[in-house]
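Collaborator request log, item 7. Partner lab (contact: R.S.) asked for a structural prediction of Sodium-dependent neutral amino acid transporter B(0)AT3 isoform X2 to inform their binding assays.
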Amino acid sequence: MEGSKRSAGLQPSLGLDDNDVHVEFSPLRQDDDEGGMVTLDVPVAEVERAAWGSKTQFMLSCVSLSVGLGNVWRFPYLVQQDGGGAFLIPYLIMMVLEGAPLFLMELGIGQKMRMGSLGVWNNISPWWGGIGIASTIVSFCVGLYYNVIIAWCFYYLFNSFLSPLPFSSCPTEAVGNLTVPVAECEMSSETAYFWFRQTIDAGDSISEPEGIRWWMALCLTLSWLLVWFCIMRGIQSSGKVVYFTALFPYMILIIFFGRAVTLKGAGAGLKHMFTPDMSKLLNPNVWMDAACQVFYSLGLAFGSLIAFASYNPMKNDCKRDAIFMCAITVFTATFATIDIFAVLGFKAVANYEKCIHHNTAKLASILDQLPVHTRNINVTIDNYEETWPDLLPHIQDIYENQTHQHFQHCSVEEQLNEAAEGTGLAFIVFTQAIVELPGSNFWSIAFFMMLLALGLGSQFGTMEGVITNLFDMKIFARVRKEVLTGCVCLISLLIGLIFCTGAGEYWLMLFDTFAGSMGLIFIAFFEVMVISYVYGHKRFTDDIEKMIGQRPGLYWQAMWRFISPLTIFCIVVSSIVYRFMNPPEYPAYKKELAMAKMELYPTWAMFVAFALLLGGILPVPIVYFMRRFQCIRLDSDIHQASIKRVETTMSTQGMIRNEELPRNDSGVWTVYKSSKNFLEGIMFETSKETAERQAGQSAGARSCAE
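Returned to partner:
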């Protein structure tokens, strides 16, 4: 310890050139309550890094990432399926248990390390650098299919300028001397036919792609060109675009709200939404749905939040940002669901009235065959619920109980209970409601522009997580960001052509289930465990306190250490059990039936799914064991400088073991310089014996200067 005591009060000049970074060492301070732990803070000049133009740009970028398509077409479906207003209870609970803690964790660690996710996890511990690789792979896979959804929105937007709307009526075909509607459209509906036949031109199964649909390939090309143009200069370019992608959807939602609540039937839709079915809360799947929805809606584990936070100033109040973002996500999801249910209520009532008109027209054709006392019953929309039950038994007697071939069962409640999610909600159900609105072209343009803004905002954030990680690697350090971004977008476009085939929607579902959903859950579990138990929850809490001037309280501590890891672990286990108990299926559209039929994925597709799943999981254990057994270098390929804060016991064994940095055997201060002439690490070693035990780890060390 004498060496450390002599060095503690020194402020040496290390003999570096004038262009090099000069370092001053502050005295060591011993914290008695940590069992002999010694903390050495080394102030190092920060490397210049891009920064947000303003705090507003950062917040809007987070809003664009978190408030995506899932808030508009996934959340309303879950509310409809999982007990109406009762679903808000588990959703809010899961937001508190996992959403806010993980959001603050990603913002805090990115802001502290000032690196992308690849650099952050290497900096925390090279053994866990695979987390950054896994999140990069998953983000890339999600970006591949997410941009296809944007391409679909472009196609519908372009068709929304046609009058009448092409999905408002069935196309016709010549049968002999007659012109009749296409049979497939008659069997389904106008909006379903336009989606399955004229937009994606769906094949019968995932094994029958039937070639690339050129119109969708053009829309996908446009989507990737737009993404490249908006993110090619990083946050300097995307930071400007988010003013549109974040704010425009709210403007459209407000306009839709003003119109939707005045529609006939809106009250029935809102009543259906807010009527809670508390018995659903006893179903564990409802809680699983709530946990997963919170997870995906906040954009956790993509690496994008870490990348965004790395461009923040060190003193930014990331805790306040995390709380605000969780609140705005809950508000947006609820507000969008109100809009959706008001419009769906209007559609349900419109279909209910069409059903009644259909039945009364059929009734008129057989009226003379009914008993005399029933012929004078006047059936209208207003008295249908009272009069139809009296007439139906007599009608059934005439048709010998086969009236289902001629008469329909009319019910507003059944219409509202027809759950639809994702593409079914946006491109089939909601477009059917838009067709019924006066000025349908305007509402169609507004709706698909809103979907575009939501989709592009999330896509920018997802790809920023990929580009930032690549740009932080030494191998790409000298490549211009515009070129690197362009190459990534071009590769993504070429791979994405598989989604433009007849089996494109089936491939998208496969990627979404196995690359996007499962992979992110595993990554989030490793993130919270590494921060809490490798980096150290106390150390992370100290970092937050230094940045915002306020120490996170008991709630945050309990979440990070126990409750959030346990919650995510339960999600992981439940997801695995669910997959084993329920073999994956997909809705394959059958032209002859004019409807989708659930089918099991073929064996080869399950191999692809398994590969996608492993792509988001395997990098973590592979990197861990390769570095554990010294199969690869311990230094990372991240070219950004970092600030090392060395904590060590009096024996320094913990310091040597944790830092994974090369050292010399003389027990002196050692400074490592990169080719960019800044300090990458500072090590103080007092035990020659410890150094000898660790000498095997110095094979990958770069040259150093005392």
